[in-house]
């Protein structure tokens, strides 16, 4: 990846509608080519075939608009793969393994990414900073139709777009919104939101999916069912009903904290800022949590000498892959902690 | 529309959908009772668990014999392989194992049985309108039964536009640009 370190990843740009609460909106589509086994059953030759079909279709679809970077992941270094994961352009699963696989990324904006030979032949995703699902869907729908003009998708009238895992079948759509919810976390109301979301069959996951504790108070809400509901209905439910409710809830909690517990609120955000400005060793998770509180302080207007863009940049650059990319050398964990603290001090000075 | 737990007076927050003898049975429970019954309230549908629950119920009903020995004609994946790995082998698996997969898919997608939404323009996959109307009717009835009125209203609208003898195959279900391309019959 050349020059990637200078561009803030779309999901961390920190602008767009409702950016005080919404980090990013993402729409994903799962697609497979007709007449070729799914990736888990495909031979090496068939995977190569999928790669070339995908490359023809995607590059062809981009056409005169151009600007697609094709990255062969087998040829990419482990560090390059880590950077792609941190920029939310490929999954962790896609970064692993040595079977033929790739990712196509729109350049330079990185808004569209197509993973090739992940669980499905194609996993298209479009990201937008802030809450902007309609725009994200319009782009992914156009990209999907353009690819479909050049290749035949596996489809059945009953089950819709056919996917390797039956939980994705139908529209193959996954809509997710990454939310920054420090207010709900501090007030303890976050569990209510989680329960409400679960009762509506939505998945609520912490940042990066795995751990039970959400890093940096970042939560991702996404739909779980893909059959029997049109794309339009799923999007409308998210954009007009579910997400605005969560945003309002978070804003109310932040306001309450500011009005009724101002010393506590100020202590949380300035303590975080103080630590970031003076620490000499910073762990990755710790940096993220502190940056989360600073972000809340900045968007609330309590911290005035730091801007959201700087905080967003740091949320990305303090991650292990980016840190090593900037330093242009591999570093072990203790070295990274020193380097991370130094970077944060420089940027917040 | 708060629903009371089937077993106590608390609010029901967990809906369990079971397929017993081919019929859908819903139970509404509060979190405590659900936990007491060993129903995990999960944030993500886990295919493994879904399969386990499904298989347990199937064998309980003595219906598993039908699932045995079913193999995809396209890739050789058997239903047993799928149970083990959670992934199908090729697009044809869906047709080859439809009787076994149907109930499982229904369970994973809150009772939905048919696709609604975008359809590819190529490969003669024109939306089968009759099929779609039937699917919508069933989903509408399910939504009404489950007292999901917002969803029912949306489905009713969709059904109306599907039934209308519209010039274009009703496609308001999927907002998208439809540019006629070369050789496209339109
Ligand atoms: Zn109860
Ligand atoms: Zn198959």
How much of the sequence lies in strands of chain A comes to 15-25%
One letter per element, helices H and strands E, the order of chain B comes to: EEHHHHHHHH
CATH class of the largest domain in chain A: Alpha Beta
Number of strands of chain B: 2
CATH superfamily of the largest domain in chain A: Glutamine synthetase/guanido kinase, catalytic domain
Helix content of chain A: 40-55%
Give the strand line-up of the largest sheet of chain A.
2-3-4-5-1-8-10-9
Hetero groups: zinc ion
Number of folding domains of chain A?
Answer: 2
**Helix count, DSSP H or I runs of 4 or more residues of chain B:** 8
Q: Could you say which overall geometry of chain A the principal axes of the C-alpha atoms support? A: globular
Structural class of chain B: mainly alpha
The average pLDDT of chain B is 68
Unreliable spans of chain A: 1-6
- Corresponding CATH architecture of the largest domain in chain A: 2-Layer Sandwich
Biggest β-sheet description of chain B? 2 strands, antiparallel
The value of Rg of chain A in angstroms is 21 Å
Low-confidence stretches of chain B: 40-46, 55-65, 166-186
The best one-word shape of chain B is: flat
- Kindly report how far apart the N and C termini of chain A lie: 29 Å
In brief, what are we looking at here?
Chain A is 46% helix and 16% strand. Chain A is an alpha+beta fold. In chain A, strand 3 (102-106) and strand 4 (112-116) form a beta hairpin.
Task: Give a topology summary.
The complex is a heterodimer of chains A (349) and B (186).
Chain A: E1 22-31, H1 44-62, E2 68-72, H2 78-86, H3 92-95, E3 102-106, E4 112-116, E5 122-129, H4 133-148, E6 155-156, E7 160-161, E8 173-180, H5 182-187, H6 190-199, E9 202-206, E10 218-223, H7 231-260, H8 262-278, H9 284-299, H10 308-317, H11 320-327, H12 333-348
Antiparallel strand pairs in A: 1-5, 1-8, 2-3, 3-4, 4-5, 6-7, 8-10, 9-10
Helix pairs in contact in A: 1-4, 2-11, 7-8, 8-9, 9-10
Chain B: E1 14-20, E2 23-29, H1 31-36, H2 47-60, H3 64-67, H4 79-85, H5 93-96, H6 98-108, H7 129-145, H8 149-163
Antiparallel strand pairs in B: 1-2
The complex binds zinc ion (2 copies).
The site of one zinc ion has 8 residues of chain B, from helix 1.
């Amino acid at each position: 990846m050349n020059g990637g370190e200078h561009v803030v990843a779309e999901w961390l740009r920190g602008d767009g509608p409702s950016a005080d609460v919404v980090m990013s909106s993402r729409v994903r589509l799962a697609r497979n080519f007709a007449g070729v086994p799914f990736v888990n059953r495909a031979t090496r030759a068939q995977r190569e075939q999928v790669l070339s079909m995908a490359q023809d279709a995607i590059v062809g679809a981009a056409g005169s608009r151009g600007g697609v970077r094709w990255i062969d992941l087998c040829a990419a270094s482990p560090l390059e793969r880590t950077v792609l994961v941190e920029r939310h352009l490929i999954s962790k699963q896609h970064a692993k393994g040595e079977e033929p696989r790739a990712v196509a990324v729109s350049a330079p904006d990185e808004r569209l990414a197509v993973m090739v030979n992940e669980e499905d032949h194609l996993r298209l995703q479009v990201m937008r900073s802030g809450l902007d699902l309609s725009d994200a869907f319009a782009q992914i729908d156009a990209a999907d139709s353009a690819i479909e003009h050049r290749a035949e998708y596996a489809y059945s009238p009953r089950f819709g777009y056919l996917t390797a895992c039956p939980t994705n079948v139908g529209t193959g759509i996954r809509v997710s919104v990454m939310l920054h919810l420090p207010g709900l976390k501090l007030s303890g109301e976050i569990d209510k939101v989680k329960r409400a979301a679960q009762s509506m069959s939505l998945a609520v996951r912490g940042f990066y999916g795995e751990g039970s504790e959400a890093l940096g108070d970042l939560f991702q809400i996404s739909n779980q069912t893909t059959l029997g509901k049109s794309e339009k209905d799923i999007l409308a439910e998210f954009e007009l009903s579910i997400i605005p409710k969560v945003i309002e809830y978070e804003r109310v909690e932040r306001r309450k904290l500011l009005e009724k517990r101002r010393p506590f609120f100020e202590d949380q955000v300035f303590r975080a800022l103080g630590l970031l400005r003076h620490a000499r060793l910073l762990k990755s998770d710790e940096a993220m949590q502190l940056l989360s509180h600073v972000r809340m302080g900045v968007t609330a207007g309590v911290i005035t000498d730091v801007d959201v863009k700087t905080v967003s940049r740091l949320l990305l650059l303090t991650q292990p892959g980016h840190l090593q990319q900037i330093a242009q050398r591999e570093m072990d964990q203790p070295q990274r902690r020193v380097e991370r603290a130094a970077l944060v001090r420089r940027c917040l000075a | 529309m708060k629903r009371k737990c089937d077993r106590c007076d608390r609010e029901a927050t967990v809906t369990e959908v079971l397929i017993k003898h081919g019929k859908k049975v819903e139970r509404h429970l509060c979190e405590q009772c659900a936990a007491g019954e060993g129903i995990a309230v999960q944030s993500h549908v886990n295919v493994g668990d879904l399969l386990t629950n499904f298989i347990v119920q199937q064998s309980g009903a003595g219906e598993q014999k039908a699932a045995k020995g079913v193999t995809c004609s396209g890739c050789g994946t058997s239903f047993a392989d799928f149970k083990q790995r959670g992934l199908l082998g090729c697009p044809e698996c869906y047709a080859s194992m439809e009787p076994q997969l149907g109930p499982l898919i229904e369970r994973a997608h809150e009772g939905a049985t048919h696709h609604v939404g975008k359809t590819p323009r190529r490969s003669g996959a024109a939306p089968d309108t009759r099929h779609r109307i039937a699917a919508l009717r069933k989903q509408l009835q399910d939504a009404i039964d489950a007292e999901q009125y917002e969803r029912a209203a949306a489905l009713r609208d969709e059904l109306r536009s599907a039934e209308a003898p519209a010039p274009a195959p009703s496609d308001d279900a999927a907002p998208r640009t439809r540019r006629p391309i070369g050789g496209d019959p339109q």
